[in-house]
Amino acid sequence: MTVMRKRHWRDLTTGQRVAFIAMCTAQVGLAAIAWIDLARRPIEEVNGRKPLWAGAIAINFVGPIAYLIWGRPRLRHPEP
């Protein structure tokens, strides 16, 4: 029987540490952008309910990306 031991930061290679920090930075950055946009956007300009989007944004990469794609209306360029 193989016993899995808990991995510690010191057990990771330099590449694994860099990748982990990069992924965490991307996750926090995406969530911050999405939450700031949601907070500043009037309720009429949000596709769906703001409280639900606020909770969804907390779900890894999926939530912020989903909000940025589907939670906001698409930009419409004025006709010349």
The radius of gyration computed from the alpha-carbon positions, rounded to a whole number of angstroms, is 18 Å
Question: Residue share in helices?
Answer: 55-70%
Please trace the helix and strand order, writing H or E for each element. Answer: HHH
- Contiguous uncertain segments of 5+ residues: none
Strand count, sense and barrel status of the largest sheet are: none
Enumerate how many helices there are, as a single number: 3
Helix and strand content put the structural class at mainly alpha
Distance between the termini: 72 Å
- β-strand percent reads under 5%
Kindly state the mean pLDDT as a whole number? Answer: 90
How many β-strand stretches? 0
Report the principal-axis shape.
elongated
What does this structure look like?
With about 80 residues, this protein is mainly alpha-helical. The chain has 3 helices and no strands. The radius of gyration is 18 Å and the shape is elongated.
Quick overview:
By secondary structure, the chain is an all-alpha fold. It has 3 helices and no strands.
Structural topology:
Elements: H1 14-40, H2 50-57, H3 62-71
Helix pairs in contact: 1-2, 1-3, 2-3
